[in-house]
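Residues determine shape. Take a concrete instance:
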Amino acid sequence: MKVILFEDVPGWGEEGDIIEVKRGYARNYLLPRGLAVICTKASLAVLKERQKAIEKRKAEKRELSRSNKEKIEAMDLQIKVSVGENGKLYGSVSNAVLADELLKAGINIERKRIEIAEHALKALGQYTAKVRLYEDEVAVLKFSVVDAKASETPAAGEEPAAAGETPETDEAGAAEADQPETAAEAPIEKDGE
């Protein structure tokens, strides 16, 4: 059965394409959802009227794709993860994690369009992933998986402060800290006790 797509359908085509599909797929999926119409003389006339608008949207998608490709190839993402003592990750880095990181950078890409060679990464290191954009456009994303704790450690020569302790505190300061600062904080003594 020939149908005209009114929206992009992954794996089948884009808006305005005339494709051949099985009757059941057309009747049960494409037509009820408004993704396509049966190819008739009337629907072809409607398609001709919409052709300029369709071409304009395709040009916008191509431009956005080129822009996203430049941004993706210019960035060097750092994915911070928790790591065990033996150097293995707790969990893994997948295409969903990369899609979230790209979204934080302002680039909205479906996770299905991001291809990692090993599907999910379970070790620290430098990696690349292919990001399929509009039409045949493909960007290469460079990223590194780093230990979240290692990136938070203080600079060389500095000692981390203990919890609740400030670096300027000395013995005299510690003695003063034990004393209440105001009368409101001092314990109340009752008469005769």
Notes: The longest strand covers residues 138-147. The chain has a mean pLDDT of 79. The longest helix spans residues 41-74. Residues 2-64 form a domain with the Ribosomal Protein L9; domain 1 fold (CATH 3.40.5.10).
